[in-house]
Amino acid sequence: MLRNCSSVDGQTAFGGEESDHRHIEYFQSLEKFYEEGLPDKLPAHLEEDISREAQLCELQAKVQKLTLTPGNDQALRKAKQHYVNHLKKLRLDALRQYQQHWVRERRDWKILTRGKEVASDKGRTEFVQSVCLLIPERGRLAQNMASDQPLEPGEMWRALQDIHFLCVQDFTVLYLPRSRPIDGACPVKCCQLRMDR
Fold first, then answer.
1. pTM score of the predicted model
2. Residue 65 CA from chain centroid, whole number
3. Which of 169, 174, 165 is nearest to 141 (CA)?
4. Domain map of the chain by residue range?
């Protein structure tokens, strides 16, 4: 696979939306140096360390001070932008350092075990399979998409219903199948407690 990835986001350009270049930032090739399980997010304790960084705290205090002072809209916008840019830079630098440290530790571990033990990282496919247990519609769609046979009309309608369900459903809380609230109430017949409180 090519080492570089195109920075053009064709789908959003076609839709007239704002470009999203995260796929460039987190891109890993499928070459021999691919690191399976490489973290793409900072752990909570490192995020906390970033929030305590001295210059970031100064910028945050400046934004709060300008927020309380009326009539400084332009200065407030500049201060907010400076704060956001500095925060992004700190996060990106910390993520790169964390990833390098993670790779170094992994390779040291492989050397110490002489390659006899395999790392027990949960791959993203295992996570997707877990989500499919909670959202069976997603699992059915995945099976339909992986099939090389054309769908029968009944299966096609079922797939469309699953797509519609995934588009309109609120997934802020995940429920086990047949445990979702019915009209905002507990589905257990003897309970019927309102769950939107």
1. 0.46
2. 33
3. 165
4. 1-34, 41-121, 123-197
